[in-house]
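Q&A log
Question type: sequence-to-structure
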Amino acid sequence: MSTTVPHALDISGLSAGYGRFDVIRDIALKVGTGEAVGLLGPNGAGKTTVLRSIMGLIRQRRGSIQVAGTDVVAMPPFRIARGLAALAPEGRRLFVDQTVEDNLILGGLHLRHDTARHEALLASVYELFPVLKGYRKRLSSYLSGGEQQMVAIGRMLMSDPEIMLLDEPSVALSPVAVDIVVKALIELRRRGASLLLVEQRIDVAIRVCDRLYVMTHGEIVDEMTPEAARGAGMSLIDKYLG
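Response status: OK
Response body:
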């Protein structure tokens, strides 16, 4: 008898917002286990609101959100962050007066009593970003933007989540740093991680993702493969992202 493996993330009919107004409306998207999915759109499209809704930071008005088969709609954010979903936010939001390793450890606080798992996750972060191992005792404020982004991704990885959410990981980074981050996300895919990547840069999303959703004015308006997005080129930018 076969069993159906739940999606890493399954959103259906989601509407959410601030005050009396919906920012996102009737959002439906899925991320399969081990799949990387991109959410493209211009500023103000509602992409970050989708991520914040998944993390329980914004309460939905309608719809459902399931992470690995678990309904998280009524769950407080701290419970969602304990191994269900983890977010690498835009702007990194590190504790800049703390060391690199302190920031990483904070991502896995709920696993602190499982010493073996905690150490294995920390080793996996240093394997993904070898430069951080040399900087582990350095204050995060002394890192470059690209290095801070590595810490933010590593902190997310430390919570050992079912779904990893990344909000504009390429923003304000040098081309060299963007390439390092993209290669790290590709490696996470190879390891079997499930990713939802919010991006404005089509080239980054094409390199990382298996499928792409396009969002504008609070709604998902298209779904396509990376190959289709590459073929659309400037017409996709002009239509949705310009």
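Response note: The mean pLDDT is 92.
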